[in-house]
Design goal:
The chain is 44% helix and 18% strand. The protein is an alpha/beta fold. It has a 5-stranded mixed barrel. A 5-stranded parallel β-sheet has the order 8-9-12-7-13, with helices on both faces. Helix 27 links the parallel strand 24 and strand 25. Helix 25 crosses helix 28. The longest helix has 53 residues.
């Protein structure tokens, strides 16, 4: 075949050994030609190919684009020689080296060489024989390899095994051609007329749509019988795949036909019903939606989007699967209160009356709510605050939110976030999902029917995280007054203004709330109630509520104040009033049973009657018993459900100076115990403690109850006093409780949760509370009745604590 390169090739003049080509290009071409003439007879020009295997006997077109491949094809075409077609292992390699090629390929003759106008090169090759590469030769502008050609030997036709495999191959070929929708009929005839077993195997393997690794495996199988087995196995597997695919296509086609038939029948039924006047006109439904969009008074951007979706709905058939989804979406858009707001009741005096009537105490919180109302009255367009009520269970956080809504005249909605671990619960699902809905925020807004409602996000500290995202991160936008004016729910896909909503969050503790979320909220702490406050709450609210729940009339049942105080002190020990209300309900149900039986018409419950109704007292004072021996001190602790008392017990036994700590203590509390022991050792001479006491004894500190984990530095003072009591054999005053962190210099450092701890001491019967001097500023948070019933001792150093708590030397 002549090419442009061949026509320009120049030869030296005959008989002129010193003649030179006319220019440098001709010199290069002459040198290449001289080099090509040196290719050994047992070598062949090699072209590497990607994702394609050439089998003997097949004619295959090949597109070549690499410079070495183009040069190789040109030379083979010029010399009318053969090519070696070899598959490269990695198709991503642009210029493969010899070690990146398979070792078995197929010799081929070039049937046609075509160069198109766009510069691409194509060759049509006919495979001839298998070969194995012996070695690659260097020094050529393209790949040249010395090869060993495999000569196919025809098997004996009378071999039963070969003949059986040929029959199977031909039968399976007919099956696969029937499954292929556009297979030419001539292929089956060609396969049936092939007499050579090897040619039949190569023909079928070359035509099948197989991974190139499987085809190369067949090419490298020189033995005839294994090659037939491999091709037959691949053919059977391909038939199974095509048969399954064909079944799937048939099922899909049937379903589509059924849907088309159903749609046609629905259209016909709709036409019949329209003629009979038994169907609602779709135009009327569209008109209703258009009227609803107009009445909703949406923002301009949302209104434009809604009308666009309505036009889509008009053009859509009612039988379409998206029709109902789009209609529901438009209904959600039109039912949201885009421009509907409740009239704020800006009456400070009336709001104060409502708050005082429904909640006893909580003066700071009431004042903050009234301040908010005053600001709203003076600045109606201001942003609503994000309040977060933090306190133990049962102190009235949720009911306080309802009172705020009543005091402001707004609608109230509540969302429980406890256990929510899916971001879609906040932001909603996208409309593409089946059963998609907006998130809880938008659903609550729709339920309230006003865009300035009071929305309570309950238990915000109990949000979880999972594989579906972090809902606390989704709340960052909701609870940011600078961002929530353009809150975008995934279902709505349009912004909704949340800036007028008054969000109130509740939590039992702040530690589990992520920092960025906590930073967006104004935290208001709700501590526990004193016994007097609980009694007032019971008399004002709980008794009446439980009377109604039990079906009793006030004239049928009477409970004395002494009985209420007995229930508080002997049957409940909590920061809130939830268990108190439960015990009052138990008492009233006992009365209801007596009245229902007819054994009594009026029952008066006194403190002495509680044992027969509620059983034995659940709590009793054990302070005197627990602190009657040296080595026991009473500490004060803070918990997520309020304050509590904590006993520190110290004991010593013969040993070698070890410190043993038990009671599930955390790392910080263990360090406090070590610091207390070191401080005591440093003051052993001042306290007249024997020098060998610590060397010949093991000190054991235990903090009951042992099954409850404990941590924190605020038990340092109590641990030091317990150790000092043990070492000096002086018992601690039984009605004294203390809290505070200590340093190695003996200083008492401030701690948190003072109010909760003081109220816990009051509930436990403590009369004297020892607090760090730097916590004196927290005294104003403690209720006046608690201050009147307790004696406060302010500690600057541990010496102040020892002077106050340690009694005389025990006998």
């Amino acid at each position: 075949m002549d090419t442009e390169h061949d026509n320009k090739t120049a030869s030296p003049a005959s008989g002129d050994a010193g003649a030179q080509p006319s220019n440098s290009d001709e010199i290069v071409q002459q040198e290449q030609q001289d080099l090509l003439l040196t290719i050994p007879p047992d070598a062949i020009i090699v072209i590497p190919v990607r994702n394609m295997v050439l089998f003997p006997g097949l004619i295959v077109p090949i597109t070549i684009g690499r410079e070495r491949s183009i040069a190789a094809a040109r030379e083979a075409a010029r010399a009318e020689g053969k090519l070696g077609i070899i598959l490269q292992r990695d198709p991503e390699v642009a210029v493969p080296e010899p070690e990146e090629l398979y070792q078995v390929g197929t010799t081929a003759s070039i049937v046609r060489y075509v160069t198109l106008q766009d510069g691409s090169h194509h060759i049509v090759c006919q495979g001839e024989q298998r070969f194995r590469v012996v070695e690659f030769l260097a020094g050529y502008p393209f790949m040249v390899a010395r090869i060993a050609v495999f000569h196919e030997e025809e098997a004996e036709t009378e071999s039963a095994e070969i003949e059986a495999r040929m029959l199977q191959l031909k039968a399976r070929t007919g099956e696969i051609l029937e499954l292929l929708p556009q297979a030419p009929a001539e292929l089956a005839s060609m396969a049936m007329n092939i007499r050579s077993p090897g040619m039949l195997a190569d023909f079928i393997a070359g035509l099948m749509d197989l991974p190139y690794e499987d085809k190369q495996d067949v090419l490298e199988t020189f033995d005839l019988q294994p090659r037939l087995d491999k091709v037959l196995q691949l053919l059977v597997r391909r038939i199974d795949v095509l048969r399954i695919s064909h079944d799937i296509d048939e099922q899909t086609r049937k379903r589509l036909e059924e849907r088309q038939r159903e749609g046609l029948l629905r259209e016909q039924m709709k036409t019949i019903q329209t003629q009979l006047g038994e169907t609602e006109d779709s135009a009327a439904e569209t008109a209703d939606l258009l009227e609803a969009i107009t009445k909703a008074k949406m923002p301009e951007e949302v209104d434009t989007h809604a009308r666009k979706e309505l036009r889509r709905l008009e053009r859509m058939s009612e039988a379409a699967g998206e029709y109902s989804m789009l209609r529901n979406y438009l209904e959600w858009l039109t039912e949201l209160p885009w421009s509907v707001a409740s009239d704020d009741r800006i009456d400070i005096a009336a709001a104060r009356t409502i708050l005082d009537d429904e909640h006893y105490g909580l003066q700071k919180i009431k004042r903050r709510i009234l301040e908010h109302l005053a600001v709203r009255k003076l600045n109606p367009q201001g942003k609503s605050p994000i309040l977060c009520f933090v306190g133990p269970p049962g102190v009235g956080k949720t009911s306080l939110g309802q009172s705020i809504a009543r005091a402001t005249g707004r609608k109230f909605v509540r969302i429980s976030l406890g256990g929510v671990h899916d971001e879609a619960e906040i932001r909603g699902h996208r409309r593409t999902y089946i059963g998609a809905l907006p998130g809880n925020i938008i659903q609550a807004i729709r339920k309230a029917g006003a865009n300035n409602c009071v929305m309570m996000l309950d238990e915000v500290d109990k949000l979880g995280t999972g594989v579906h995202g972090d809902p606390s991160s989704a709340l960052l936008e909701v609870l940011d007054p600078e961002q929530n004016s353009t809150f975008r729910d995934n279902y709505l896909a349009v912004p909704f203004d949340l800036s007028r909503v008054m969000f109130i969050c509740t939590a039992n503790m702040l530690d589990t709330i992520p920092g960025p979320l906590r930073d967006r909220m104004e935290v208001i702490h709700l501590p526990g109630y004193t016994e007097q406050e609980k009694a007032q709450i019971a008399e004002r609210y709980l008794i009446q509520r439980q009377l109604e729940a039990s079906g009793l009339q006030p004239q049928q049942c009477e409970i004395t104040s002494e009985a209420i105080h007995a229930i508080i002190s002997n049957y409940t020990r909590e920061a809130g009033v939830r268990n108190l209300e439960r015990e009052i309900g138990n008492t009233f149900r006992h009365v209801a049973m007596r009245i229902a039986e007819g054994t009594a018409d009026h029952v008066r419950i006194d403190a002495a009657d509680l044992h027969g109704i509620l059983g034995s007292a659940k709590f009793e004072s054990e302070l005197a018993m627990r602190t009657s021996v040296p080595g026991v001190a009473t500490g004060l602790a803070w918990t997520p459900v309020g304050g509590d008392i904590l006993f520190i017990e110290a004991s010593r036994a013969p040993g070698h100076g070890k410190l043993i700590l038990t009671g599930q203590l955390g790392d910080v509390m263990k360090e406090s115990a070590q610091a207390a022991l070191t401080l005591l050792k440093s003051r052993s001479s001042e306290l007249q403690i024997a020098a060998d006491l610590f060397d010949k004894s093991d000190i054991h500190i235990h903090v009951p109850a042992g099954a409850i984990p404990k941590d924190g530095p605020s038990a340092g003072v109590a641990m030091f006093i317990a150790l000092a009591s043990l070492a000096t054999n002086r018992a601690v005053q039984s009605d004294h409780a203390m809290t505070g962190e200590i340093s190695l210099r003996g200083l008492v450092l401030p701690v948190g949760g003072v109010k909760e701890k003081v109220l816990a001491a009051l509930r436990a019967g403590i009369t004297t509370v020892l607090l760090p001097l730097r916590n004196q500023k927290d005294l104003e948070d403690i209720p006046q009745d608690a201050q009147a019933r307790l004696k406060f001792v302010w500690l600057e150093t541990v010496d102040d604590a020892m002077r106050e708590t340690l009694g005389p030397v025990s006998p």
